[in-house]
Amino acid sequence: MDTIVAPCFPQPLRTGFTNFKEDGFKSYAWTIVEHVGTHVDAPGHTYEEGASIDQMSLSRYVGPGLVLDFRGRPPRYAIRREDILHALDQTKKKDEVGAGWILLFLTGYSSKARSPEWMQHPGLGEEAVRLVSEMKVNAIGIDAPSPDVEDQKYEPAHQIFPLHSVAIFENLTNLDKLLETDFLFVGCPLPLIGGTGSPVRAMALIIQ
């Protein structure tokens, strides 16, 4: 397999389980880490007392979406509170985004997956994370392996968002196609009992 996976995780393993010749039907057994490809983190991933993926309401993974464009930032750039406020001011949704919404961050780094540059993606600084948490959004998402700048001792997004039950989508793609577009974001996880996350098939349902 060759799936987008952070360096700390293994590639998925697919093993034939049944086949047409011997069993009359075909199936595979899969071995995967929860945080593979496009996926969502449950609060319990980085917060010991946080909910597991099966305990979260599906309503957290569906909502009107908004993409904020942060392409062209320097490697490992920490997005600031002021950056988000400025980006919101540039949209027609700035007065609507809040409870129930899903806020998506476009960095352009999905195109760098599997390259040495991939882990140099921008992320959210602490004050930016606190601002988004105050907005009471359902979830945030990013087209990179993490909403935090990599290799920090303190990762504000993974520490603060779980306290507010804000779901974290990672490794999204095609966010550039949703700029200035009205859409409903859907990214429902598998209800893995006790799971800390789940792969998702993220969709944007365009509102005409």
CATH level 4 superfamily: Putative cyclase
- The shape, in one word, is globular
End-to-end distance: 38 Å
Task: State mean pLDDT (0 to 100 scale).
Answer: 94
Radius of gyration: 18 Å
Low-confidence stretches: none
CATH class: Alpha Beta
CATH fold-level assignment:
Glucose Oxidase, domain 1
Helix and strand topology:
Elements: E1 13-18, H1 20-23, E2 27-31, E3 39-41, E4 62-69, E5 78-79, H2 81-89, E6 102-106, E7 123-124, H3 126-134, E8 139-142, H4 156-160, E9 167-170, E10 183-186, E11 197-199, E12 203-206
Parallel strand pairs: 4-6, 5-7, 6-8, 8-9
Antiparallel strand pairs: 1-2, 3-9, 3-11, 4-10, 10-12
Descriptive notes:
- The protein has 208 residues and is α/β, with parallel strands linked by helices.
- The chain has one domain (34-206): Putative cyclase (Glucose Oxidase, domain 1).
- The chain is 13% helix and 24% strand.
- The chain is built from 4 helices and 12 strands, in the order E-H-E-E-E-E-H-E-E-H-E-H-E-E-E-E.
- The protein has an 8-stranded mixed sheet, with helices on one face. Strands 1-2 form a two-stranded antiparallel sheet. A two-stranded parallel sheet has the order 5-7.
- The mean pLDDT is 94.
